[in-house]
Amino acid sequence: MSSTYKMLLHYTYSDYEQWKGKWELIDSVSYAMSSQLVPKHQIVATNLITEFRIAFKHCKKCIAHQPIDYLILEETILQPDMLMCANQSTKNF
Questions:
Q1: Phi and psi at residue 74, to the nearest 5°
Q2: Cα–Cα distance between 3 and 27 in angstroms, integer?
């Protein structure tokens, strides 16, 4: 009787930096992201980011980012449409 093993490669941020296109890395597993956003999505995202930037106008430590690589761990890099931060640290970007 034979056994089947599913092998997943273990990727890290250094691998991620070499890839072309849009990817996310979650627990060292790579996920291809859609490369094109539909117009309705872009309109909604633009309106939301504008509202967040207006709301954060008086907060010197708050910032709203649009699509950005967000390094959480060496094996987890996300690319959210929007990211709101309570400080302007660029440590994980």
A1: -60, -25
A2: 25
- Retrieve residue 36's tokens: 């094109």
Cα 79 to Cα 35: distance, rounded to the nearest angstrom: 12
Question: How far is C-alpha 67 from the geometric centre of its chain's CA atoms?
Answer: 7
Q: Both tokens of residue 10?
A: 């273990």
What is the residue extent of each domain of the chain? Answer: 13-85
User: Which pTM value belongs to this model?
Assistant: 0.69
**Strand segments (E) across 33-86:** 63-65, 70-73, 76-78, 83-85
pLDDT digits (tens, 9 = 90+) for 12-58: 999 999 999 889 999 999 999 877 778 998 899 899 999 998 988 88
Are 45 and 81 a contacting pair, CB within 8 Å? yes
C-alpha–C-alpha distance, residues 67 and 77, integer Å: 12
Q: How many other C-beta atoms are found inside a 10 Å radius of the C-beta of residue 83? A: 19
